[in-house]
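can u pls check wat happens w/ nicotinamide-adenine-dinucleotide
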Amino acid sequence: MILPKNAPVLVVGAGIMGAGIAQVAAQAGHSVYLFDMREGAAAQAKLKLTATLESLVAKGKISADVAQATLACIEPVESLNAAADAMLVIEAIVENLDAKRSLFRQLESVVGDNAILASNTSSISVTAIANGLQRPGRFVGMHFFNPVPQMKLVEVVSGLQTDAAVAQAIDVLSVAWGKVPVHARSTPGFIVNRIARPYYAETLALLQEQAATPQALDACLKTAGFRMGPCELMDLIGHDTNFAVTNSVFEANFGDKRFVPSLVQRELVDGGLLGRKSGRGFYTYPEGASAQPSTTHEAPIAVGLITVHGVGEIADQLEQFVSQGQLCGDDAPARRRQSAWVGLEIGSARLVLTDGRTASDIAKQEGLSDVVVFDRPTLWPASRDGALAYAVAPQVSGAWRQQAPAWLAALGFVPIPLADAPGLVVTRTIAMLINEAADAVLQGVCTTDGADAAMKLGVNYPAGPFEWLSRWSVAGVIHVLESLDEHYRGERYRVSPWLRRYSA
Ligand code: NAD
């Protein structure tokens, strides 16, 4: 089943998403009917699109011919019956199950038997919308991302009754429209809205225990390659919307503690501090996030022998930077590859790459006092000069409390002090993103490649969860999750069986 290049398309709902979908379909050469239940809304949307395309022409981004041809393809209609010859319907109306169900039942008697019916729903079960349709096999999710003309990802969502040929037809069509389709099984949050939950949740959990400020957390995650820190991003999305998505994934999973919403965010919502749109969220607008203040550090003093411990990319880079920066005079640092930990030992003090345990636990377990842990510099060396979190064990000496951040600064980072929380910021966030993606794959929601593509194209992540995993180690991720689980107790940090199977 392949939709012809000139198949007429009906877009229902002329809001933000419907207008964008109509534009993309028209640019691909389809004749597009645009319908909205609000009288005049479809014509209004076309007028707005005309202005947008004219400004793109003025900026030289598209030619006047393309703009004209696109607009000529879009016909606002005031009744669904005017679009009876549509071969594909894409619904982008209000996010409400009853409204969507009744629209599709009505559409079945308007369009031909072979027309494909698609919904742009971002959270409602595709299986549930199809319930009651005469031909549920032709119903599929076609989930675009906002803004539709710019975002490449389309999640092609199959419910229990969706025909494979229908999902495949939407796949082929998405490619023809310049998009990247990724297949998903209809489960709460599909791919992106599910796997992305920990990006917000870990930061909200750290804020709740007052481990750091929003500025500090944003700075650390931006150093790891994310375009926006979670606090800035939640402010942009709107706390009401972000909280509603978290709640819907939580409830749809029967209250699974893994997805439990945050009191910190609920307070912002209750107080009307919704982010940019209300002038205040974590930050105040129009100023937004202020730069993270950086402190200057004196050059560290090498007292005694410097040893680089452990194996792997980060240990190798530590060795290289310590040598290059001549941080141990003319001597090369010693290297102990057989150590179970990664980091630097200077005299009897340790600067340890977090493995999920707190600095305090490491100090207790190893019988040491001078222990400082630092976060995983994910894109090191590209991200040097950026913020890197560290935490000190409570029993640390005054000298090492000062020297440890000086060493991080000498290695090229901006050291950010954090309370002694397990897995610090980047490490626990990425471990949880990997864990959620692993569970999605375990449950057949998507493939590993699908998860990677969806997170990079749907929310601009610097890498996909399985790409991070390939640069880290399954055992390392499991160790971080188990440490978090031991520290907090509860369901949130349970390790995905997929990771355990993969490690075996
Ligand atoms: P919107 O409020 O901007 O637009 C919805 C439009 O649908 C309105 O113009 C409304 O008049 C119309 N409408 C409502 N009920 C209707 C009906 N029964 N028949 C015809 N028209 C009807 O909403 P939006 O942001 O464009 O979202 C639309 C859909 O896309 C929702 O399902 C939403 O979850 C999904 N979605 C939104 C985003 C986003 O970022 N906004 C991203 C992906 C998916």
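The two ends are 41 Å apart (CA to CA).
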